[in-house]
Amino acid sequence: MMDELRELYQEVILDHGKNPRNFRHPDDANREAKGENPMCGDRFMVYLKLKDGVVEDVAFQGRGCAISTASASMMTEVVKGKTEAEAKALFETFHDLCTKDDHEHGDHGPVDEDAMERLMVLSGVRQFPVRVKCATLAWHAMNAAIEGEDKASSE
Amino acid sequence: MDTQITLPASAAFDVERVRADFPILSRSVHERKGKPGKPLVYLDSAASAQKPRQVIDAMTRFLEEDYSNIHRGVHFLSQTATDQFEEARRKVARFLNAPSERNIVFTRSATEAFNLVAHSYGRTFLSEGDEIILSVMEHHANIVPWQLLQMDKGIRIRVVPVDEHGVLDLNAFEDLLSDRTKLVAMTHCSNVLGTVTPAKIIARMAHERGVPVLFDGSQAAVHGVVDVQDIDADFYIMTGHKLYGPTGTGVLYGKYDLLKKMPPFQGGGDMIESVSFEGTTFKAPPARFEAGTPAITEVIGLGVALDYMEKLGREAIAAHEHDLLQYATQQLSQIDGLRVYGTAPGKGPIISFTLEGVHPHDLGTIVDQYGVAVRVGRHCAEPLMDRFGVGATARASFALYNTRAEADALVESVIAVKEFFGA
Ligand SMILES: Cc1ncc(COP(=O)(O)O)c(C=O)c1O
């Protein structure tokens, strides 16, 4: 029974949860969006520095559970340096990973396969439907920031 | 010589027999292929309580034998159903020691009852510049309806703070009371901290200035004996599903002279005397506030739930729950890094806590794997979370069917969380 828990809380997640990467507010950020989960009170700000259609920097601040913090942290690592289109493709593909069976995954355009490989550790949330929002919270905020909105619309 | 032996409440209260009345408590959770599940340890009754067989059976029996619409038929079943519905109203009146069943309005929930008062009383008797006083502990159900009124009428909402134990600051309350105060709306027991507020004193202080008082009894009525006449409450609100009754049932108690002055909340059938396009006249309370077909079966179920509590004895229930509260608090407090929010004397059986280095949401997921159901999050009381500077807490709440062994299971599962996270 605890296998599912280990699956959900893999070492990588616990590590990112405790020591989140890019946990800062960059001075030169030109986009920001808030992600909020009213159920558990998690709240993140995601900051982007967009230049010529490329995410030159991405960082976040706020407070959340291990899953949401780890997911936000990993998001900043894989999204940095991507074009807007690539970042959005990652968002859509990651969203499928957390919410859908393999055969239902959509085609969201070319996507960084290495990045998806790393994000696989978060796929354990599929067994914990109430935790899916945790895993996707910062991603929604990142996506909103790219679209020029100041907060992620809650699903 | 006095030979009478008084048993301690815990001995008089046979919790195993009580548990046998609640079918759901014997189930396991998280059964998986080939692997047995974990026995359910239900510590989330403050969100909603489980239902005893007596309530389930009474509702089934009513649906199978006596069901019909009420207040509107000359036929046999309609009369039978109406009698049972009105009997439930008398039971609620007795439960609260209301002077009469005329004081009891059935709503769909506590939330609807707050909206009823805010809409009907608030829009009639409050105007721009008037103030209402709440506490920082309120559930959103006792905040947002007043904010809607604020948008509409330009009233002002004043907030009584609590100290670090969660005790209401009566001096601040006194200072906030003024000629502008038109209503006090306050929790009788916090769903997060467990704090029981001194309702009688609050009512007296408000009444000295001629201000009516509404209490949110959603939690208080579950854990103690409530006497609305002794408190001298002007309004008192409860919600059926926390009282071991079904969902879809709420109760608004109101002093009759206040109810009489209030216009309807919703319009529809059952609340009118006569309807014409020239003008419609309304029935007297409580019917005036009960537009449309109510939750007939559920209200009857609620009446049976109150009977159930009375039969066990509300003081015996309170004593049992208090024992669990003390035991669980003591056991939890031995865990390093665990902090309990809400340490007011005389509090209800609700323990909100955090564990250093672990987010409550993660804690909730992990203890759930051990079969332990707790609530995590903001508990519909965001201002209170801000007051204590926490984004969220975990909350274990105890009910008449919980045991010390379940408190142990909670403690063990929290220790497992600590080990899991190396916190
Ligand atoms: C203190 C308090 N007030 C009001 C409510 C609202 O009750 P309901 O959702 O049944 O309307 C609750 C329950 O969630 C509560 O705990």
TrEMBL record, chain A:
GO terms for biological process: iron-sulfur cluster assembly. GO terms for molecular function: iron ion binding; iron-sulfur cluster binding. Residues 17-35 have a biased composition (Basic and acidic residues). It comes from the Bacteria. Keywords: Plasmid. Residues 17-36 are annotated as: Disordered. The keyword Lipid metabolism does not apply. Belongs to the NifU family. This is SUF system NifU family Fe-S cluster assembly protein. It comes from Azospirillum brasilense.
